[in-house]
Amino acid sequence: MSSSANHQALEAAPDSHDVLAVAEGWREAGRAVAIATVMETWGSAPRPVGSHLVIDGEGNFEGSVSGGCVEGAVVGEALDVLESGAPRMLEFGVADETAWKVGLSCGGRIRVYVEKVA
Length: 118
Prior knowledge:
A 5-stranded antiparallel β-sheet has the order 3-2-1-5-4, sandwiched between helices. Helix content is 36%, strand content 27%. The chain contains 4 helices and 5 strands; from the N terminus they run H-H-E-E-E-H-E-H-E. By secondary structure, it is α+β, with helices and mostly antiparallel strands.
């Protein structure tokens, strides 16, 4: 993806700056925080590349990477990332048998990177 296309995708996620401010506030308050970021999308995807979901160690979250059950799956993975410290790349889509369970039956696929905020 070119930098201008990437820039446009990031602009398409208007809540991303607010969500990052939430993450910063949570860290300043001493909470463990993970950030999930939409890295790639194929086909129909509810959120654009650059969308963020921030998660604290108690499972509280702000933002969105997809909606529906995908968010729940990402929150669960983020809690594991917070515990282990190891980042993860997640992929959800119709080719995956879990697609129907997490709500991506529309034909799209997304790749989400989850990392702990140091």
